[in-house]
Amino acid sequence: MERVMGEQPRISVLLVEHDEGQARLTTEALEREGFTVELCRTGRDAIDRAFNHDYRVHLIEAKLPDMSGVEILRRLNTIKPGSVSIVVSDPGDGAAAVAALKAGADNYLVKSPTMEHLAALPVVIHEVLERRHVRDERELLQSELWENARLLEERNVELRRANEELKRLDQLKSDFISMVSHELRTPLSTIKEFSEIIADQLAGPVTDRQREYLAIVHANIDRITRIINDLLDIAKIEAGRLLLNKS
Q1: Which of 15, 117, 128, 209 could form a disulfide with 112 if both were Cys (CB 3.0 to 4.6 A apart)?
Q2: Are residues 16 and 58 in contact, defined by beta-carbon separation less than 8 angstroms?
């Protein structure tokens, strides 16, 4: 593709036309509109040329001496998938146009005995390129939407897993608090009970210093008991098992 300073890139066309007069007139009509044209007279030459070069548009005659335009189209679509192709058929050859469209042609054009089709040819090419551009943009957008949807679903799965893990850890925490609290309450109750027995001198005489120490033991046992009760209340609140009676 050639680039002219200050102008848009010129659209390259591979013209596959065996008739010398038609080829010359078509080339002149396209070059006047700013296209660059390379001519092939046979289907085999066109396939070889397309294999080694990239063209924006393949303009293919429906009937060539060595193979049909449909066969050329199929082979071009194989070696250049996604390429833009237009088939030009003779007047009254509707079957060739239908076959070309079924084979993947982007459009077709019927030759006019008075060469009027040459004036329409640049317009047809631009319309085909614009349709292809819109289609490619739509497919790209659709692909991006699908990819974003896939990533969003993956993220949702990760969040659900993380949420389940948080719930599991929270339950483990609650179970741990409940277990530890209950395991502590029993020995604390035993310690408190025996300290009271000692304070009441049921196990023998107690000095004033010993009674003072026992009072400190009682105070700390009560403080730990309140902490344990608070932890149990927090666990009940988080589990929704504690009803608040506001007043």
Answers
A1: 117
A2: yes
